[in-house]
């Protein structure tokens, strides 16, 4: 079999494209799954960026449309109006996305401030639109030393709070400086294969849920609130 373009670590004999028909999702939107990727470091040699870029190549080979947000220049949350160009860019990408990937280094046992700042700029509500609710989410972290799951566990809590569908699989890459070559490409390893697993799972869940997330996240309490707001409007209270 022919090699997968730009993915020398992939064995073509074991490579499968997600099949919407097998998921019962073939009647969904006809565009490729839209995936937004966020990473949590501003370093010139950033392993979270390298891992994000490696995952983006895998996602594109799986048929997804990918956009990576560059956090450089994003102000600290609430320090500027939300009309700031970088804030507007991030929020527009969130609205565009059907799934997301968050990847952060671990600092003091937690996601970095760069990572958290991006998430904090994403509102739970933007008018009548919810930029994060109903999106799928995959989580990854890079470690400077031994393997840890502190970051992905923390991000999983944040994803739940943002009302996202966080997939079961996740990736944690220990001693990341050993896992990438000078060009920033990830070396062949079990950690690389886990990244492939996570991206494959993300695309499948995104295909399964997109076009259905509004129904899946429609709640009794929110329907009740809409009714109350409608009554208040009629009475001229709001």
How would you sum up this structure, described in words?
This protein has 238 residues and is of the alpha/beta class. The protein is built from seven helices and six strands, in the order E-H-E-H-E-E-H-E-H-E-H-H-H. Strands 1, 2, 3, 4, 5 and 6 form a six-stranded mixed sheet that branches. The longest helix is centred in the C-terminal third of the chain and has 20 residues. It starts with 33 loop residues before the first strand and ends with a helix. The relative contact order is 0.16. The model has no long low-confidence stretch (mean pLDDT 92).
Q: Over the alpha carbons, how many angstroms does the gyration radius reach?
A: 19 Å
Reported for the largest beta sheet, the result is: 6 strands, mixed
Total beta strand runs: 6
Shape: globular
- Parts with pLDDT < 50 across at least 5 consecutive residues: none
Terminal CA distance reads 64 Å
Assembly level: single chain
User: Percentage of helical residues?
Assistant: 25-40%
Number of helices: 7
| Mean pLDDT across all amino acids | 92
Strand fraction? 15-25%
**Topology order in helix (H) and strand (E) letters:** EHEHEEHEHEHHH
In terms of structural class, how would the helical and strand content be classed? alpha/beta
Please sum up the structure shown.
This protein is an alpha/beta fold and 238 residues long.
Which helices and strands, and how do they pair?
Elements: E1 34-39, H1 47-61, E2 65-68, H2 85-96, E3 99-107, E4 110-111, H3 113-120, E5 136-142, H4 150-161, E6 165-173, H5 190-209, H6 213-216, H7 220-234
Parallel strand pairs: 1-2, 1-3, 3-5, 5-6
Antiparallel strand pairs: 3-4
């Amino acid at each position: 079999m022919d090699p997968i373009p730009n993915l020398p670590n992939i064995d073509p004999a074991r490579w499968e494209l997600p099949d919407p028909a097998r998921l019962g999702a073939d009647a969904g939107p006809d565009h490729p799954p839209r995936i937004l990727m966020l990473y949590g470091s501003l370093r010139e040699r950033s392993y979270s960026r390298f891992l994000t870029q490696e995952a983006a190549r895998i996602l594109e080979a799986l048929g997804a449309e990918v956009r990576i947000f560059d956090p450089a220049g994003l102000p600290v949350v609430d320090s500027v109006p939300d009309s700031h160009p970088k804030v507007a860019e991030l929020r527009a990408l969130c609205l565009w996305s059907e799934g997301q990937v968050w990847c952060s280094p671990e600092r003091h046992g937690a996601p970095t401030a760069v990572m958290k700042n991006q998430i904090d700029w994403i509102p739970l509500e933007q008018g009548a639109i919810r930029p994060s609710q109903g999106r799928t989410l995959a989580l990854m972290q890079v470690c400077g030393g031994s393997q840890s799951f502190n970051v992905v566990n923390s991000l999983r809590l944040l994803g739940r709070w943002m009302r996202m569908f966080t997939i079961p699989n996740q990736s944690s890459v220990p001693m990341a400086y050993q896992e990438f070559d000078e060009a920033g490409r990830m070396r062949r390893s079990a950690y690389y294969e886990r990244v492939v697993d996570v991206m494959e799972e993300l695309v499948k869940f995104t295909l399964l849920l997109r076009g259905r997330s509004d129904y899946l996240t429609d709640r009794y309490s929110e329907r009740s609130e809409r009714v109350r707001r409608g009554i208040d409007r009629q009475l001229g209270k709001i």
